Amino acid sequence: MSEVTAVSASALIDDRIRELGDWRGAKLAKVRELILSAEAGIVEEWKWRGVPVWSCGGIVCTGESYKDRVKLTFAKGAALADPQGLFNASLDGNVRRAIDLGEGDSLDQAAFLHLVQAAVALNLAKKPKGKQKMEREAP
């Protein structure tokens, strides 16, 4: 199976938003805009046969659409501070956290931008494996 390029991933996400054609498409378009504005290095990807993914140094979050909600799952959400309480789903897991948005739900945009930026910072803070090994071996 061939990789989806960033250009074609963006086009596929555009298509998904158009296909939804309702409040879910509008919500997905808005959160996409916020995610892309949060950090210049964020890249759009299309994975797992139809899931929009935003990455920077690793997966930041995914944007899935269901009949009654848009779900934004942060890959390392459990490690992120969430003082505004945006995470409202997948709260029992050790790694991921999610934000479920229903039709009438609003999103604190400033808090969401901060959450995306924190996820990027966490991804970029990880040390390369080779460097960790060298540090352990040093006397």
User: Strand percentage, roughly?
Assistant: 15-25%
The residue ranges in which pLDDT falls below 50 over 5 or more consecutive positions are 131-139
In the CATH classification, which architecture applies?
Alpha-Beta Complex
Strand order in the largest sheet: 1-2-3-4-5
Q: In DSSP terms, counting alpha (H) and pi (I) runs of 4 or more, how many helices? A: 4
Question: Could you say which overall geometry the principal axes of the C-alpha atoms support?
Answer: globular
Level of helix content?
Answer: 40-55%
What gap, in angstroms, lies between the N and C termini?
A: 46 Å
Instruction: Count the E strands.
Output: 5
Secondary-structure content class:
alpha+beta
Q: Can you offer a commentary on this structure?
A:
The protein is an alpha+beta fold and 139 residues long. The chain has four helices and five strands. It has helices at 6-20, 23-38, 109-125, 129-137, and strands spanning 43-47, 51-55, 59-65, 70-74, 97-101. A hairpin with a 4-residue loop joins β3 and β4 (70-74). The protein starts with 5 loop residues before the first helix and ends with a helix.
Q: What brief labels describe this structure?
A:
single chain, 5-stranded antiparallel β-sheet, alpha+beta, Aspartate Aminotransferase, domain 1, 139 residues, disordered C terminus, 4 helices
